[in-house]
Amino acid sequence: MFSNTLKEETQQNHVDLEKKIVPRIKAIQSEQDYITLLKLFYSYFGALETLVQSVLDTSLLPDSTSRRKSEAILNDIRALGGDTPNLAGVADLPEISDHAAALGAMYVMEGSTLGGQIISKMIAKALPGKTNDALSFYKGYGENTMPMWIAFKNAMNEHAVTADIQKKVINAANETFLKFSQWVDKAG
Asked: Which Gene3D superfamilies does this one have (predicted)?
């Protein structure tokens, strides 16, 4: 199954990004720390979603609008009294020029919903009672997180049937991980 190959081909870049994000999560001690983390995600995912939506073939992924993450992140920021951050520029994003590349970028964003289940518990523990209304991004799709993940992987597997398409998806996913990692570095 292609999704297994994609996981293997992107594993190192995924792990490298996690090594930068997890310490930031563990360091959260205040609402401001959490807002800073949310802004980091919003500025990257918000710009990436706009780029992805410009080339995504929604007939091949009809539930794509319900998969947008930036609105949930922005709602969490606002629930904590934070302001809207600027979005990443085109130079900070992966090259997404067609549906296959869009799927590669979405693989990274959709995968974040799986880790978000753990992250939401970590944040709730670090800031008990303070973030109840500001965990929608990390809670993902709630009880539907796994079914949504499986549906996304199935749609991707159905589309990525040729070596050329698979290569585009893999390259875009790797570039998305790398560019997000660079974005984290840029944020300091």
From this structure: Heme oxygenase-like
